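Lab notes, practical 5.
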Amino acid sequence: MKFIIAIILFSIIILFHELGHFLFAKRAGIRVNEFCLGMGPTLVGITKGETKYSIKLLPFGGACLMEGEDADSQDARAFGAKSVWARISVVAAGPVFNFIMAFVFAVILLAFAGYDRPVVLDVMEGYPAQEAGLKAGDVIKKINHKSVHFYREVSMYTMFHEGEELDVTYERDGEKFNTVITPKFDEESGRYLMGLTGTYAREKGSIGETVIHGVYEIKYWIWTTLQSLKMLVTGQVGVNQMSGPVGIVKTIGDTYDESLTDGYFYVFLNMLNFAILLSANLGVMNLLPLPALDGGRLVFLVIEAIRGKKVDPEKEGMVHFVGIVLLMGLMVFVMFNDIRNLIR
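Output from the prediction step:
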């Protein structure tokens, strides 16, 4: 059951991403030849109008296949025949739809479960936070001029900026204070700590506050994804620590098992949280300016808009082809790594 839920979760997120491309393609008058969920051979397919709707064998991935998207076409309704701004809107729609989905799910989650305010519950003796004068009840407002809206942002920031000096703004009895804290390395946890214990108790707000915190929730996951990518690029984490669909399905399955002991309501909340994370992550990853990804296609379209003429289709196609090959190679490596971790 847990693996079915994981696959359904993946499918919904990918389907909504491709739906963004599909709807904006139709809006721009572009012929969509096939709209599919999954990869590989077709299991089920039905043609309605000019578009074939299908489900593929492998339950990961999906596609909105447009006329002339990756090949030359003389069709007046081909992707390449439309204005550069119409094509930009079609390509950008997929990631944007992912952010919209993540926001809607975030509002639902926060309406049910509330949000964790960045309130200090306790200060650890002998650690920098105590020396800096922080006390229980203080509300963390900013770290290094980055606004803080959830307590989990405090621990995540120290994790992404290990050992760095932190300029902390906090509020006490309605008055704001500033202090500088340099986290101390803790042997037991193997991490740099300010010495704060936060309250992860969730607080429910009004409809307006829930919507606003829904935006903050998306910002948090986008920021977390970008910081994780930065650590990967700078070598702070290795490629072996990356997780692909197999690893994510396992994590979702493990979370399902743990949540089940608390009841189906907690299963629902945790799956919703995963959906927010994955949808925001997919949106960010697809906007990276890398060949074969939506972000890579947008780079060529922006160049076209600036130059006033298209980049040589053959050269662009070659760049995307190389990108697809490298991306597939990375996916195979990550999947192999996930399977290896499973059987250890």
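Observations recorded by the TA: The two ends are 23 Å apart (CA to CA). The first helix runs from residue 2 to 27.
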